[in-house]
Automatic annotation (TrEMBL):
Keyword annotations from UniProtKB, A to Z: NADP, Oxidoreductase
Protein name (database record): Aldo/keto reductase
UniProt entry tagged with the keyword Oxidoreductase: yes
Keyword NADP listed: yes
SUPFAM superfamilies recorded: NAD(P)-linked oxidoreductase
Domain NADP-dependent oxidoreductase residues, every copy: 17-315
Family according to the record: Belongs to the shaker potassium channel beta subunit family.
InterPro entries: K_chnl_volt-dep_bsu_KCNAB-rel, NAD(P)_OxRdtase_dom_sf, NADP_OxRdtase_dom
GO molecular function list: oxidoreductase activity
Provenance organism: Microbacterium rhizomatis
PANTHER family linked: HYPERKINETIC, ISOFORM M
Short name of any one Pfam family annotated for the protein: Aldo_ket_red
GO cellular component, one term: cytosol
């Protein structure tokens, strides 16, 4: 079964392997298959589910809500997000304004079939809305009982500090950040993680397998595997491009014997690696087939010894991205419409 960790400086626990439905539900995967995969996640002990209103333009939330129908709500931890354009994508259908937040949470609750979400996350930082307006709206929906905790996604260290100060002033809890993080993409380690540790904020990390590259299935100098994420525009092909360099792929192949020595598959090694960071509360994993989850959950509870961690570091030396300044490039300076 899957282990649990506290989320931030709170009493709230989440499964350290968390099911995420970006680019799968209502997009890459037919609804019946998506529902079967969610049920497999539950069978394997995953109780924490992450989605967003923008995924498949609200479709992913609806599929997740259908898949969780009939489950004991108190035994689930449901996360969703607000920021990116949704619906007809009008001028107020995006961002972190009070109007968009209040409209969005009501829509999300309806689609998810629940009275509240456990964690409501600002999907990016909104440079065009006063932060005070955003957090006052968050405080209001917390007090209305529609949201239990507040999180953010891909915020910089400075933004986390500002948000945490406002949350504290308003009497609500900002407990998480959701950044991209893997053995190949380590940009949060320089500034975001130290600030988060100081503030009592945890990371819920996405793409722990670097869009599948750390599975080892992409080989240097070889054609991309048919049906893989790298060949499917609906499956995040744009996101994976940065890792499809022959130097990167050659380095990743060096992880195979390290995984074998640790008694793990390469996907398990990748997920276990992010979970070694004490500031990480959960690794988000997705799946297009139920059996993929059976492999992923075996990374829960794994401890990688110092020699293994050093071997991974050595194998990926020179190709892992560690520049902390990359964290300043994730939120658009103007809202996307």
């Amino acid at each position: 079964m899957v282990n649990y960790r506290f989320l931030g400086n709170s009493g709230f626990k989440v499964s350290e392997i968390t099911y995420g439905n970006w680019i799968t539900h209502a997009s890459q995967v037919e609804n019946d298959a998506a529902i079967k995969t969610v049920h497999k996640a539950l069978d394997l002990g995953i109780t924490t589910f992450d989605t967003a209103d923008a995924y498949a333009n609200t479709g992913a939330e609806s599929v997740l809500g259908e898949a969780l129908k009939g489950q004991r709500r108190e035994s689930l931890e449901i996360f969703t997000k607000v920021y990116w354009p949704t619906g007809p994508k009008g001028p107020n259908d995006t961002g972190l304004s009070r109007k968009h937040i209040l409209d969005s949470i009501n829509g999300s609750l309806k689609r998810l079939g629940t009275d509240y979400v456990d964690l409501y996350q600002a999907h990016r930082f909104d440079y065009e809305t006063p932060l005070e307006e955003t957090f006052q709206a968050f405080a209001d929906i917390v007090r209305q009982g529609k949201v239990l905790y507040i999180g953010v996604s891909e915020w910089t260290a400075e933004q986390l500090r500002e948000g945490h100060a406002l949350a504290t002033k308003l009497g609500i809890q900002l407990i998480s950040n959701q950044p991209q993080y893997s053995a190949l993409w380590r940009v949060i380690e320089g500034k975001v993680v130290p600030a988060s540790e100081e503030l009592g904020i945890s990371q819920v990390v996405w793409s722990p397998m670097a869009q599948g590259v750390l599975s080892g299935k992409y080989l240097p100098g070889q054609p991309l595997p048919e049906g893989s994420r790298a060949t499917d525009e609906k499956s995040g092909a744009d996101f994976i491009k940065r890792f499809l360099d022959d130097d990167v792929l050659t380095a990743v192949q060096k992880l195979k014997p390290i995984a074998q020595d640790a008694g793990l598959t390469m996907p398990q090694l990748a997920i276990a690696w992010v979970l070694q960071n004490p500031n990480v509360s959960a690794a988000l994993v997705g799946a297009s087939r139920p059996e993929q989850l059976e492999d992923s959950v075996k990374a829960s509870g794994v401890t990688l010894d110092a020699d293994t961690m050093t071997a991974i570091e050595t194998a990926l030396s020179g190709v892992a991205v560690t520049d902390a300044d990359a964290t300043y490039e994730t939120s658009p300076k103007k809202r996307v419409v």
